[in-house]
Specification:
The chain has 19 helices and 24 strands. It has 566 residues and is α/β, with parallel strands linked by helices. Strands 1, 2, 3, 4, 5, 6, 14, 15, 16, 17, 18 and 19 form a 12-stranded mixed sheet that branches. It has a 3-stranded antiparallel sheet with strand order 7-12-13, covered by helices on one side. A 3-stranded mixed sheet has the order 20-21-22.
């Protein structure tokens, strides 16, 4: 079989206006970025279609994946191809990949085989500049924090040791995770400890994903807390009069990008938060647009159902009318077997040959993970379809056994997905199953009420989703919870930062671990993003000066127009 890049380049690229018109997007609603991709003017199109009823909303998640990934993006795109193949009007909505993992550990973020978004090079690299806009807006605020401390009188009275807003870069640069700044003398800042996170973990990225329009984004940016003053009061981007300039930088990033698949169907790409350290889903805005244009919108949630899907419901859907009609859980034979303690999969190393042997015993040993992930989805009132992403090395006996087990565990349907090798035709059976189950309807239930305490929400996630017997909060976490409550944000949902390689906090715990204590070492606040993110176990987040106040005299008015305040 040809490489992904060879397959992508062999497919004809149609003018993006032609592709977009298939779902009713008008030419004046597009801003072209070359012939094969465009920005979709969210304001124009929502004014025209905002009152339309929504189509069916399909989410794609997975079991706990191996470090190699199990083809969730391939299945997301391929399911859309399959729906189109059986005559349905469909749009795929996915996230923009980070250049950190693309060049670091995984790549293939555009899908693979005959189930891709094209041009592959554009998708995986620069796209339309949204990542840069997020980084620039974020780092403008970070620079203004340090500049304001340096200015005579420390004009916002920020205590340097309590300045919490870190910088971001879209490269997995571990050397920058923990740094000392301001070491160049009095003219170059006040020395303090800080660091860099990776851009997908930026609060600005979360804000982009959860905003309903540019003015909503502007308001959310203003709520970002950068630190405390000498009286213990939170200092925000609004206080610092920086949110308007940040919104101006983001004025084009608020618009989803329109691209096409290998079979000429429409794909929306917007924002790119990771699921292990952020909320792991594409934007609310692009899904709302897609649902009004298509009969079926297929979106992807990062990593396993304990991660991206749980956050889809309890973070992304909360406060909106978005409600998935069904969820597809992607599984592979090798991933199930990898939950047998005998096996270990590591990036860059050959697969253990024993994983490729017909071994029902190994399959049985790993199946508790699938069972638990089905339970995690059903706990939110959403029916499940299991998609077995088949590899050429899989054995018929194992495939049959796995599909039957999925039905026994509570899935409404279980089908083989062969979209990598066959495109839409290889996803037709899966598409038929999804259509059938989606018609049954869902009864989406949030895992906890807003009124529950932060401690209660952590306990609920740990025991109901992760299988823990209880939780243990470090002293730092308890202090952070007190501070968050004092700011008035105790009612926000949780966005747990934990490993994606286990349902638990520990990547070494395979299958569906139970009876352990779930540790939380710290708790942080994303006031603009609208969630609280506890840091589980030992997990750490991935990884200027001299701005003039006059540069910040830019803002966004209620109509989403940039205004100058000079």
């Amino acid at each position: 079989m040809k490489s992904d890049l060879e397959i992508a380049r062999a497919h004809p690229l149609f003018p993006i206006e032609e592709i977009a018109s298939k779902v009713g997007i008008e030419a004046d609603e597009l801003a072209l970025h070359g012939p094969a991709k465009a920005k979709l003017n969210q304001k124009k199109i929502m004014q025209r279609i905002g009152d339309r009823p929504r189509g069916k909303y399909i989410s794609v998640t997975a079991i706990t994946p191996t470090p190699l990934g199990e083809g969730k993006t391939v299945t997301t795109i391929g399911l859309s191809l399959g729906l189109n193949h059986i005559g349905k009007k469909v749009i795929t909505t996915i996230r923009q990949p980070s250049m950190g993992p693309v060049f670091g550990v995984k790549g293939g973020a555009a899908g693979g085989g005959f189930s891709q978004v094209v041009p592959m090079e554009d998708f995986n690299l620069h796209l339309t500049g949204d990542m840069h806009a997020v980084s620039a807006a974020h780092n403008l605020l970070a620079a203004w924090v340090d500049t304001s401390i340096l200015l005579k009188g420390n004009i916002f009275d920020i205590v340097p040791e309590k300045a919490t807003f870190r910088r971001v870069v879209d490269i997995n640069d571990r050397a920058l995770r923990e740094i000392e700044i301001g070491l160049g003398g009095k003219a170059n800042g006040v020395p303090r400890h800080t660091g860099f996170d990776i851009t997908p973990a930026s609060e600005v990225m979360a804000i982009l994903g959860r905003s309903t329009d540019l003015f909503d984004l502007r308001k959310r940016l203003g709520r970002i807390i950068v630190g405390e003053d000498s009286k213990g009061k939170a200092v925000t981007a609004e206080t610092m009069k920086c949110a308007g300039a940040m919104a101006a930088i983001m004025k084009d990033a608020i618009n989803p990008t329109v691209m096409q698949t290998t079979e000429g169907t429409v794909a929306f790409i917007h924002c790119g938060p990771f699921a292990n350290i952020a909320y792991g889903n594409s934007s609310v805005l692009q899904d709302e647009i897609a649902l009004r244009l298509a009969d079926y919108t297929v979106t992807e949630s990062g990593f396993g159902a304990d991660m991206g899907f749980e956050k889809l419901i309890n973070v992304k859907c909360r406060g909106t009318d978005l409600r998935p009609d069904t969820t597809v859980i992607v599984v592979t034979v090798r991933a199930i077997k990898s939950h047998d303690p005998r096996f270990s999969i590591k990036p860059g190393k050959p697969l253990d040959p024993a994983l490729l042997v017909n071994d029902i015993g190994a399959l049985k040993a790993g199946l508790p993970n699938l069972k638990k992930q089905i339970e995690n989805v059903r706990a939110h009132g959403v029916p499940v379809v299991v998609a077995l992403n088949r590899f050429a090395t899989d054995h018929d006996e194992e495939v049959d056994y796995l599909l039957k087990a999925a039905l026994e565990f509570g899935a409404e349907a279980a089908e083989i997905s062969d979209v990598h090798a066959k495109g839409g035709a290889g996803g037709a059976a899966l598409a038929e199953a999804v259509v059938r189950v989606a018609e049954m309807g869902s009864d989406v239930t949030f895992l906890y009420p807003d009124s529950a305490s932060i401690e209660e929400k952590i306990e609920t996630l740990a025991t109901k989703i992760y299988g823990a017997s209880g939780t243990e909060l470090a002293p730092e976490a308890k202090e952070s919870i007190k501070r968050i409550k004092s700011y008035g944000y105790g009612d926000l949902p949780l966005c747990m930062a934990k490993t994606h390689l286990s349902i638990s906090h520990d990547p070494k715990l395979k299958g569906a671990p139970t009876g352990y204590v779930f540790p939380v070492r710290d708790v942080r606040l994303s006031a603009g993003g609208g969630f609280i993110y506890p840091l589980a176990g030992n997990m750490k987040l991935m990884p200027g000066l001299g701005s003039k106040p006059a540069l910040l005299n830019i803002d966004i008015d209620e109509d989403g127009e940039i205004i100058g305040l000079f």
